[in-house]
Amino acid sequence: MTVFTDGVPEVPAQGQAPAQAEEQVNVLVTEPPPGLAPAQLAAQVKGRIDIEDEVVEKVAGLAAIEVEGVADLGGDVARAVESVRERIGIGHRRGDQGVKARIDGREVSIEVTIVIEYGHVVMDVARQVKTNVAIQTNRMLGLRVVEVNVIVDDVRMPAAARPAEPAGDDDQRLTIG
């Protein structure tokens, strides 16, 4: 167990083996020094954390797609490009398709383009997307979401029912002759 005192880790004296070497590698701070809250300890550590727009876009896209009634992300052009990429086997489906994010300091604005499944109420689904994107982005990334704009680009129609295969013997053949 490593304990920090005045921001400096205490190390066991020479010849003393730490009680649990595995935990020492995985755990940097188990208990802050008395009188020093974890937030104060973090404030003492210098450095910067940058979150790229693409990370916000992926989190927002995943949050949008998990809402019931969302069939897909992206506008017509983005979906067409993804369809071609999928058919020729280039890369994986992008989670940020149809999502744009603008980060300004600790605040973010997000635009999500979605396709609604037929049969769902468009306004209800759009509101749920707006709420879920804001909550998940704030929870996962710690950014303040100032706005979420939802663009409903299309409605996906239900897949046409395929005609059932005729039941019968597999040996039946059409003979012409």
Automatic annotation (TrEMBL):
Entry superkingdom: Bacteria
PANTHER family per record: ASP23_GLS24 FAMILY ENVELOPE STRESS RESPONSE PROTEIN, HYPOTHETICAL CYTOSOLIC PROTEIN-RELATED
UniProt family annotation: Belongs to the asp23 family.
Protein name according to UniProt: Asp23/Gls24 family envelope stress response protein
Originating organism: Actinoallomurus iriomotensis
